[in-house]
Amino acid sequence: MELKKGINFGGWYSQCDHSQERYDTFITEKDFAQVARWGFDHIRLPFDYMLIQQDDGQFKEEGFARLDTAVRLAETHGLNIILDLHKAAGYDFNDAGNAGKNNIFSSPALQETYLALWDKVSARYAGAHNVAFELLNEVVEAEAADRWNSLIRRAVATIRKHSPEGTIIYGGIQWNSARTLKLLDAPVDKNIVFTFHMYEPLIFTHQKAHWIAGMDPHKDIFYPRSLQYYKEASLVLGYKGKDVTDTDSTIDGSAIIEEMVCEAAAAAQKAGVGLYCGEYGVIDGAPVADTAAWFRDIHKVFRAHDIGHAVWTYRQMNFGIDDGHYEPIRSELIKLMTGI
After folding, report:
1. Which pLDDT score is estimated for 288?
2. CA 223 → CA 208, 209, 283, 312, distances in Å?
3. Residue 192 region by backbone torsions, left for phi larger than 0, else alpha for psi between -120 and 50, else beta
4. Which residues contact 307 (CB under 8 A, 6 or more apart)?
């Protein structure tokens, strides 16, 4: 399955108000057609569990019908599609460290609900040649590493009952950090792909983001700059700035991406699996010229390591490639992303 050059459809079935209007209008067939015309080969489709599953574990056929349509439209336009479980019952990457909400790893009942979802999804799409399964968007907490490995094993076994050859994708802790893939157990199955997300330096790619604690909503951060510049600026982010503040102080700031991707590539090679970057991008509050420079650097690294990727994201969500902020550089970004 080709997953070389993709784009996320974030905000359609995930991180939204889950209204019928949103489902009906945010993404339509013309958007699948646009993505294909641009030259992408796949879509990463984030969906929250509540699209297809109630809190009591019962399934919603109307939600599955919507996934059916997305899979069909992708196939119609020659695209592969990753069904990415963005939020599970008992796990939301936005609730980092909140054991009262992120309790899937301590609740056998919630784990069974999660496995039942993958049993149903994999059974439904086992025959679709263009579908891959991503187990969970971003596990955050460091203490969850071992329990996440355990749940991965069970989820893979569940999917393999229906889809012996299908592509299964998953990543490590700390928001799918490239540096935590080494904490994943080596797969005992084939057609497994390790994924990571690359938003480093986060202080640049997410500058002014209101949802990140400690982020100054008015401060411009530039790229490229020295590593010391990013380390000092990232101190206010705490755990979210860890990947930068823990970086070797002798390298240049623009080499952060290369260093971290090399760690991910080494972990995937050791495990004998493919490697994929499921999210990367720069917020619409960043300087446009600096955004283009960051994209040039990350795609240079992707090419050097032959890493497939899906940019975050197609529309809105503060990162939407089709939004006005990116107009001056959109053509260049799409050429970088698609190689066309």
Report:
1. 98
2. 15, 17, 13, 19
3. beta
4. 261, 265, 275, 276, 277, 301
CA distance 24 to 44: 18
- E strands in 199-311: 274-280, 308-311
Q: 15-58: per-residue pLDDT in tens? A: 999 999 999 999 999 999 999 999 999 999 999 999 999 989 99
Are 208 and 184 spatial neighbours (Cβ–Cβ below 8 Å)?
Answer: no
Please tell me the distance from the alpha carbon of residue 134 to that of residue 125, in angstroms, as a whole number.
13
Distance CA(268)–CA(62), nearest Å, equals 37
Q: Mapping DSSP to helix (H, G, I), strand (E, B) and coil, where does residue 265 land?
A: helix
Q: What is the pLDDT of residues 177-205, one digit of tens each?
A: 999 999 999 998 999 999 999 999 999 99
Active site residues: 138
> Rounded distance, CA 95 to CA 211, Å?
11
- Are 183 and 176 contacting, i.e. CB atoms less than 8 angstroms apart? no
Three-state DSSP class for residue 108 = helix
Q: Is 103 helix (H, G, I), strand (E, B) or coil?
A: coil
Among 128, 276, 308, 298, smallest CA distance to 223 is for 298
Taken as a whole, the chain contains a residue count of 340
Tokens at residue 209, please? 């983001």
Amino acid found at 245: T
Alpha helix segments (H runs only) across 6-144 = 20-25, 29-38, 61-76, 108-125
281 pLDDT above the threshold of 70:
yes
CA distances from 72 to 66, 75, 121, 241 (A): 10, 5, 15, 40
pLDDT, residue 105, reads 95
Residues in Cβ contact with 71 at an 8 Å cutoff, skipping those fewer than 6 apart? 81, 83, 125, 128, 130, 131
- The DSSP code for 237 is G
Residue 249 tokens read as 């102080």
